[in-house]
Structure formats: structure tokens, C-alpha cells
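2024-03-11 09:14:02 DEBUG pipeline.ingest accepted 1 chain
2024-03-11 09:14:02 DEBUG pipeline.ingest length=404
2024-03-11 09:14:03 DEBUG pipeline.predict start
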Amino acid sequence: MAKIQMTTPLVEMDGDEMTRIIWKMIKDILILPYIDLKSDYYDLGLVHRNETNDQVTVDSANATKKYGVAVKCATITPNAQRVEEYKLKEMWKSPNGTIRAILDGTVFRKPILVNGITPYIPTWTKPITIARHAYGDIYKNTELKAAQGSKAELVITDKDGKETRALIQEFKDSDGIVQGVHNLDSSISSFARACFNYALDAKENLWFASKDTISKTYDHRFKDIFAEIYETEYKAKFEAAGIEYFYTLIDDVVARVIRSDGGFIWACKNYDGDVMSDMLATAFGSLGLMTSVLVSPDGKYEYEAAHGTVTRHYYAHLKGEKTSTNPIATIFAWSGALRKRGELDNIPELCAYADKLEKASVQTMEDGIMDKNLAAMSKLPNKQVVDTETFLIEINNRLKELMA
């Protein structure tokens, strides 16, 4: 069978530890036999990020702006222990955070539904997509310790040098801590438009929630910007598509989500989305069954797995042991990126391949063949637990039939 030809490269961002090993397996077993892959390759492994003073991360994000589609392997965000382990020059920032900031993107995470793996909330029969704002909040914070007897103030100095001050706290009787967070109207507007556009593409209702009753300036600004953009730019489009935009408080949305049957997009501020996406992933099954795509306001896409680098399995792999690691989210990162490349370049064969790769992956799991992580969740009888490479070979056996 002739390989599917690509016309434009996609940006390939390699990663760390066990996911880096699986990344190569997926390419060798499931992609390269079928596609004449054109990729602009960047090694985002921690060793190479350290060697380049993290310039490689910036370069990969700028390449995504150039080519429009990227696929990213899971990467390490170093802590103090990792700095020592890898002998790093400094504690480099999260690659995901750097890429999000450069693309000004919104992260959309959606679970993969598989027969035999029942969500912990039994009413959830359709996936719930989390849309996470990817700028500001505590991820761009400034924080200090405050000694007893000190005073903390919030100070805004305008362009003419005029100061506006507000007392935060007088630490009369105890030491304490202070944190300052910010956001930008421009970033909130990009977040809103990305959510509205995604909802129109998916033809699903969009929910947005914050805590504007408590945060009467910060959170209320999010609410107002969403409302203004919806009314002026998207209301007619939503009505024509038969979908709705809905705002309420975040605690109300949490209650509504639990009672729902799914099938909608839940937009969250940065920290809320970080927490709630992991909650949804676990409730639907696993982070290993969660897709993730970063979408910029001008239509650039970066696909990745939602989980980490699976360090424990990597150390076992280094000892020569066979590991049973869930590769599904990484496979779906590749299929999502290849499908989008096919859509943008008008290559229907590439889109069809991506659909079949996902179908083969789900079919393999529903046939009872899976890794230890999936097997622990699956209610299917007669499950067959296999190592990662065997799992990928089984997926490929089904993919070959679909491609024939």
C-alpha cells in the first residue's frame, strides 16, 4: 500500500521518560508504515532543554505559529529533586506554560469513551470537554512572605505616575503570606472567542463559570467580557446552530455537572481548569483516556496527552523490564494532529487514517486487550493484560484491516 503523502510539516515535540519511549513505538508501529511523515522535529526532553537554556521550547512554539499544527509528547516540569537528578542549570519553567503563553491558547480536554470502562458518575453518557484558560492566575503570580508587624498593599501606578492603593492586610499578630495575581483583557477575550468557536465547531452548549459574587472585580471581568463578546459576535451564530451559552457561579456548575448526562463544554479559568480537568479525567476513567488540544485565537493547534511522563515505568524500563503503560492518549494526540493537518491541507486520506487509528485503538480495548491501567478500570470479562509494545501491535493488527 502506498504511503499517504503530506504537503505541509507538522511540528513534532519529543518528550521525556516513558512517554518518550512510547512516542517512538507509536511512530514505528502505527504511523510510519502508513504515512510519509513530514515533521519539523524539536527535542523537548529535559536534557536538551537544559543544553539550549530552554530556547528549544520557544523555537517549537514559534514553529507551531508558522505551520499551524503541532503534536507534543509529555515533558518533565522540574522541581528541586529533578534539578539535582538531571544536574540542571536552573529550575526550568513548564514547557506547556511557555507554549501556551506564546500561542495565547486555550486548552480543551475531552475524555475518550470506551465500552467496558464506566464513568464513576453513571449518568455521564456523553463526554464533557473542559476548556481551560491558559494565562494568568497563580501561574503568573507574585508572592512574598510577610513578617509579623508588616503591612501589605496593592498598588497600581498609572502611566502618569499616579498611585492607587488598597490595603490587603496588616500582619499585626502573626507572620503571613501574600500573593498577587493578574490577567489581561486581551487574553480573556482570546479565551472567550476560542471557547465560542470550539462550541460552534462541536455544536455543543458552552458553560462558563467563575465566582463573581466574591471576586467582584477580577472574576466579574471574566463574566463581563464573555457576555459582551457573546452578545455582539456569537449570539446569532449560536441560535442558528441550536446551541446555548450559559453562565453561572462555579459551585453551581459543579452541582449541575454531576447531575448532567454530559455532552457540553465547560469553560474554566486557569486554576479551575487545571483542577477540574484532572477530576473529570479520573471520573471518566483515567488521564490516560483524556485528549488535550491547545487552540490559539488565530487557529493554531497543539495536540498532546493530558498525563505525565510515567516515571515509575521508565525506571523499570531502564532495568530491562517489560512495562505495561497506557499509550492511548498519546495515540490520540497523533491522530488529532494528523487529522487537523489533513483538514487544513485538504488531504482526506490523512483524515480517514486518523479516524481509523482511533477506531482501531478503541476496538482493541473493547476486545479486552489492554494495559494494566485500563484493565484495572474495565468491567469487560476475559481481559488480556499485555505490555505496551504488544498492545500497540494489537492496535496495528486492527488498523491494517481498516486500512485495507
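2024-03-11 09:14:41 DEBUG pipeline.report The CA atoms of residues 156 and 164 lie 5 Å apart.
2024-03-11 09:14:41 DEBUG pipeline.predict end
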